[in-house]
């Protein structure tokens, strides 16, 4: 039988030398992702965030993934922090045996979650630029010849965590689009250009002192950078449709994000990446309605709207992101 979360946290912290044997701790489960058990742990002198990868994700459909992905996540956080100390989260150690790691618990008046700000309509208006610059910096750095790819050969994990639940499962729900979605899946699986995060979502992005801290890199692998770009832009579009009163502003965020990110593209032709984006973005929109991990905040009317728009753009792809956004604005 699996140990309770508090015991698992104590065992991990003990292994890493962060608590003494017999020292009391308080472990409070944190809400958030579906792929891990996460806890806020308070010791006598410190406060940590502890994360354990789960073999079966917490969703309605059967969705399994190997727990060794915890290693890739830890390595991604190390690499991202090395590119810019302002993007770094303090890391205290990782255990391959327990499939968990310990990092700082983010808190303070100067820290906020981007998803919360977007849903509450309190976004500062600068996040799209900050996050896109951070993501572009990481992608560009991983495209250098001296980048060590050895910790990120995780295509099988990426297939289990992203390609199958988002594209292949959605294809089973829309047979008339199956060929398109399967082709996108094959293209993503065959690519190994750039180190991608795999879950660049506002729910995983904290803003601290005008810098972005991107967490939850369980899907990190060498892959096609368009996935990270499309994944984040998808969330901005969905929130624009969810909150009509903020639609114009949030769609402007999409344009700002693209402009900030595009300035870092040095590993391929910008137009080639933009063309792939026009096919993958509507596919991911549809996946957040009919895939294994649907967004939780849309009502049925908006879900139907997103489904119709996604199908339209998959069948008739836009020539550019700006053209697509112009159609959304209408």
Structure at a glance:
The protein is α+β, with helices and mostly antiparallel strands.
Indicate the topology.
Layout (H helix, E strand, L loop, with lengths): L4 H11 L10 E4 L6 E7 L4 E7 L15 H15 L7 E5 L4 E5 L6 E3 H7 L6 H16 L12 H19 L4 H13 L3 E3 L8 E4 L2 E4 L6 E3 L2 H17 L4 H16 L7 H21 L9 H16 L5 H9 L1
Structure, explained:
The chain is an alpha+beta fold and 330 residues long. It folds into 2 domains: 1-105, Phosphorylase Kinase, domain 1 (2-Layer Sandwich), CATH 3.30.200.20; 109-330, Aminoglycoside 3'-phosphotransferase, Chain: A, domain 2. Helices cover 48% and strands 14% of the residues. It has 11 helices and 10 strands. Strands 1-2-3-5-4 form a 5-stranded antiparallel β-sheet, with helices on both faces. Helix 7 (226-242) packs across helix 9 (270-290). The longest helix is centred in the last third of the chain and has 21 residues, at 270-290. The protein starts with a helix and ends with a helix. The model has no long low-confidence stretch (mean pLDDT 91).
Features:
330 residues; alpha+beta; Phosphorylase Kinase, domain 1; Aminoglycoside 3'-phosphotransferase, Chain: A, domain 2; 2 domains; five-stranded antiparallel β-sheet; three-stranded antiparallel β-sheet; 11 helices; 10 strands; globular
CATH superfamily of the largest domain: Aminoglycoside phosphotransferase (APH), C-terminal lobe
Q: What is the strand content?
A: 5-15%
Number of strands: 10
- The oligomeric state of the chains shown is single chain
Helix and strand composition category:
alpha+beta
Tally of helical runs: 11
Helicity range of the residues? 40-55%
Q: Could you tell me the mean pLDDT? A: 91
Would you identify the CATH architecture of the largest domain? Alpha-Beta Complex
H/E order of the elements? HEEEHEEEHHHHEEEEHHHHH
Largest sheet entry: 5 strands, antiparallel
- CATH fold type of the largest domain: Aminoglycoside 3'-phosphotransferase, Chain: A, domain 2
Rg from C-alpha positions?
Answer: 20 Å
Count the domains.
2
Q: How many angstroms does the end-to-end distance come to?
A: 55 Å
Low-confidence stretches: none
Strand line-up in the sheet with most strands: 1-2-3-5-4
**Would you state the CATH class of the largest domain?**
Alpha Beta
Shape field:
globular
